[in-house]
């Protein structure tokens, strides 16, 4: 049985998908980009600011499922320029404890929705 997870503290979906789906004890999140949840505007000051907004959006989705970053077992990071990796990783790393950080892949892609620089999705378990 699946349960749709939704929160107004993260951007509303802009297509035929949900912010997250809980199946049993496993949460599958949709990718988050740097949309401000209240205004719907992109937060694009610099790559660190953009990444922080993505992670705050993800935090809100996790909280809506009664989870935290401690529950995350896998992340996927999509970036438009691998030269931004170190700065993205710096911000991303503040949300996890190095000893218990999740598995992860980081992939450079040609384009992301709304031509943002970073999109992150996660899998978490209770």
TrEMBL record:
Entry-linked CDD domains: YjgF_YER057c_UK114_family
UniProt xrefs under InterPro entries: RidA, RutC-like_sf, YjgF/YER057c/UK114
Signal peptide: none
Cellular component, GO annotation: cytosol
Superkingdom of this protein's organism: Bacteria
GO MF term list: deaminase activity
Pfam family, one: Ribonuc_L-PSP
SUPFAM superfamilies, per database record: YjgF-like
Stated family: Belongs to the RutC family.
Record protein name field: 2-iminobutanoate/2-iminopropanoate deaminase
Organism annotation: Olleya namhaensis
